[in-house]
Structure formats: C-alpha cells, structure tokens
Amino acid sequence: MAKKETKDTAGFALGKENYKLMAVGFVIIIIGFILMAGGGSDDPNVFNPDIFSFRRITLAPIILLFGFAFEIFAIMKKPKSNNQS
C-alpha cells in the first residue's frame, strides 16, 4: 500500500495564484477609485459640472464592480493540484 504525499501549505488559506489574482483585483479597484476622484471646485460658490462626467458617473463604478467581482473570483478559485496519482 503506497502512502499519498500531502503538501503542507504552511497554514495559508489560499494558494499563491489566488493571492496574485487578489492583487490584480485590488489594483483594478484602486484604478476605479482614481477615475472617480476629482472634479471639485476651489470656490464653494462656483458649480463645476465636471462632477457629472461620463468617467465619474458611469465608467468608474463599472470598473469598481468588475474589480470587486474579480476579487470574489480570486478568493473562490480552487488552486490547481500538482498531485497526479
């Protein structure tokens, strides 16, 4: 009877690939927040219509939602098994 080797993952909950994918998702989320920033006015009595631009109202939230969905995918993805018995 042959023993099956078990690979000790040093206590990490996820695999190396999962953490890489989570880093990519985090960068996507940061890009979404950067796209949403700005458009303010230095003078509070002056209205700046740039706060309602396509980039801030539509594009940035879509990128943020994609980033959060990508994070969920990165966490839920099962690591590949290198054990081929």
Fold and architecture overview:
The protein is 52% helix and 0% strand. It is mostly helical. The chain is elongated. Helix 1 runs antiparallel to helix 2 (54-76). It has one domain.
- The first-to-last residue Cα distance is 13 Å
Q: Level of helix content?
A: 40-55%
| Nearest-integer average pLDDT | 85
**How would a textbook summarize the main sheet?**
none
Judged by helices, strands and strand pairing, the structural class is: mainly alpha
Sum up the overall morphology in one term. elongated
| Element pattern in H and E | HH
Number of strands: 0
* Low-confidence runs: none
Radius of gyration: 21 Å
List keywords for this structure.
elongated, mainly alpha, 85 residues, 2 helices, single chain
Quick structural overview:
The protein has two helices and no strands.
Summarize the topology:
Layout: H1 16-36, H2 54-76
Helix pairs in contact: 1-2
